[in-house]
Specification:
alpha+beta; 150 residues; Aminopeptidase; 7 strands
Length: 150
């Protein structure tokens, strides 16, 4: 896999109708191997959980050119900004795309004066990525780690 070139434009776009299926597939593909280490995988339950947590106005689809390569969901409250979901397609990972997305988001978060938070499964190697991006473990929530970027 090659690194993302400086010329490669990564864009975040609001959700369109067909994006739900794309996001669901990416979520199931990424979460099944991680979640299965802690609980028995129940696909119908996971699909239902996804549907309950999906908040289209807070979702952005990540594009490289015209191709959808990932998605994220943010929530902002009075006191913090939460990165609720962040997925990059497996074939696009380790190319600097996630870093490029966070490089775009971090100044916006910083300007808000609010800490950015997220949770990540303890067994998810994305934890190391988040640490490189300035997040630190602030606690545990069951099988997840709560991370904060101040």
């Amino acid at each position: 896999m090659h690194a993302i070139s400086r010329a490669e434009v990564i864009r975040l776009k609001p959700v369109a109708g067909r994006d739900y299926g794309f996001a669901l597939r990416l979520y199931l593909q990424a979460m099944k191997p991680l979640t299965s280490e802690f609980i028995e995988w129940d696909e119908p339950e996971q699909r239902e959980r996804f549907a309950r947590n999906w908040n289209a106005p807070n979702v952005r689809i990540i594009f490289s050119g015209r191709k959808r390569i990932g998605w994220l969901q943010l929530d902002e409250t009075f006191s913090e900004i939460t990165l609720q979901q962040f997925f990059i397609a497996p074939e696009q990972q380790r190319r600097g795309i996630g870093s490029k997305v966070l490089d775009f988001l971090v100044p916006i978060w910083r300007a808000s004066g609010k800490p950015a938070t997220l949770t990540v499964l303890r067994n998810n190697s994305a934890r190391l990525f988040y640490e490189r991006c300035g997040f630190a473990v602030a606690g545990e929530e069951g099988v997840k780690l709560r991370m904060v970027r101040r």
